[in-house]
Amino acid sequence: MYLPVHSFLHEAALVHEVFSYLDFLPDILAWRATSTHTRSVGSAVLYARFSCIIQPFVHCHVRALAHVMHVTHAVITGSCAMRMLTGKDTTTNNINFVIGQGTLDVFQSFIQDKLFYHWTTTKPHYAFQCALASFTVYRRDKLFITVSEARYGGVFDVIASSPTTADMTMMTSGSFATFYPIWMLKHVTVANHTLFGGNRGTHDIGCVTHPEFEHHDNMYWLGPACGRLCSTLWCNIADSDRQSLVLEWDARFSLRSKLALSNTIWRLSDQCANLYCPYNPANNTRTALLPPDPMPSDLRSILAQEARIQSHYPHYAGTCLGVLYATSAMTPYLVSIPFLNGVSQFCHISQLEVSHWVDRLTLDCFIVFTSKFHKTYNVHPGTCGIAPEYGYTFFVTHLMLDDVTGNVLVIKHPRGNKHDIIDMAADDIAVVNALIQGAVPRVDSEFWT
After folding, report:
1. In what order do the strands lie in the sheet with 374-377?
2. What is the pLDDT of residues 171-194, one digit of tens each?
3. Which of 53, 94, 160, 432 is the most buried (most CB within 10 A)?
4. pTM score, two decimals?
């Protein structure tokens, strides 16, 4: 039995014939991974599919585009990315790129000088306005290229701002990723909060009106099955769980590594409309609405917030102890910091619900660039260069720690590993006080990581 299979895999024409019957990208990758012989043929098939999608827009500059995308940290979104996944032979006159901040000049030079497109408009759809530094549409005859330049949050901030869950897809010349893949493969799409940030009469974007998708504005359609898919639960782009699907065929243009380094978390809405969901405040008064208004500022309000944490339902799976410097408190206090709703096993610092004590949602209640509002200190005053055993991470409302106008929350962890949280004790307060007095104002210090 082995010899016929072995002979079959050595026949490039037969291997290629099998590929010709496969449309769905995961199926192609599965067959490609069968052996070293199918890998070489499969790589050519995948490159041919990618080229077929983008050649109408770039002609013979496919490889040049791959290089420019790599340099500008760009991804392709929209129908072209969807076509790479499904293999459906659909045509489009528009291709969408999202590029990294500060790279527009490079990308624009390629589009205008190499591809001979000309600028037409710079007004983005309102769903993306908060996530973009710039938006430009280029035209050549009947073909259009849209280029969205991300703000400081990066390209994933833009993807998380997509109007629906099915639009949260992207690809490079060697990788594909999508969020909420189970819904997308079932042709179900759910509205993102960004869709309701402007004129409700202009929802004709993405998969909102796509005839192949069943569209929902909230989670009511899920009934009791809302669970971990609740629109109010935070999702971490760095996680590789059932909330995302990542496929790769060329490690040089990996999305997986970029996803792993992302500091972006997002949620679809701040309140769930599903009557069966315990995170719907309409039928559960024990769900804590965050951030508190007003924020805890003295001992009385700190104790009241601790009571809300204890009575919160569904119960938080775990908590740690940190030190809070509240705006009207005479002394710092040890406070409980719970895990985010829905998090059962803690593995990343972004899974702490610090919003009970520090308003990290000041700029955006739905997308958070988690590294923006905390800084880690790993060298203690008076240690004479001796590496300490522990480090401390400070959470603030504003980025510059010498201009703090709100609470400051401090957590403890082993030096060099801020994702392994250690409960703070009263003895730690003196160490943190020394850090604040001797080092924290030096925001440009080499010791901040």
Report:
1. 333-338, 319-325, 408-414, 390-396, 374-377
2. 999 999 999 888 888 889 998 888
3. 160
4. 0.86
